[in-house]
Design brief:
3 helices
Length: about 130
């Protein structure tokens, strides 16, 4: 009877943890979609604006040094691209693992069950 209660308790905790995992997955998916859409919009607008700024610089400098203006604009885009790659790398390195809260709760459940089983063994033998 005591083993059945422990199994029932373990199954109940597992169900709760699976529900928590589902909530975490839903939140992660929603946040990822929002991040992607805002990043796409921002990148599109900034790219368009920077192309027009570079075009204006090239037109302004056309009579004096068009090659220098083109190289300056190209350098700007190279640096911007490198900075973007650095940011992506940093974000990926600092990202928290998926299901972190669920795994933490499962570990607590495991420890609680082991403690409960040890207490029952001690009680039965004592």
């Amino acid at each position: 009877d005591s083993a059945k209660r422990v199994v029932a308790q373990a199954l109940s905790m597992a169900r709760t943890r699976l529900e928590l995992a589902g909530v975490e997955l839903s939140q992660a998916r929603r946040a990822t979609v929002q991040l992607f859409l805002w990043a796409l919009l921002s990148a599109s607008v900034l790219l368009t604006a920077s192309v027009f700024v570079c075009l204006a610089i090239v037109v302004y400098a056309w009579e004096h040094s068009p090659i220098l203006a083109l190289l300056g604009c190209a350098s700007f885009y190279v640096l911007l691209g490198l900075w973007g790659l650095f940011r992506v790398k940093t974000i990926l390195e600092t990202e928290t693992p998926l299901f972190e809260a669920t795994l933490s709760e499962l570990q607590k459940d495991r420890e609680g069950l082991l403690h409960s089983l040890k207490a029952k063994e001690t009680h039965e033998h004592g």
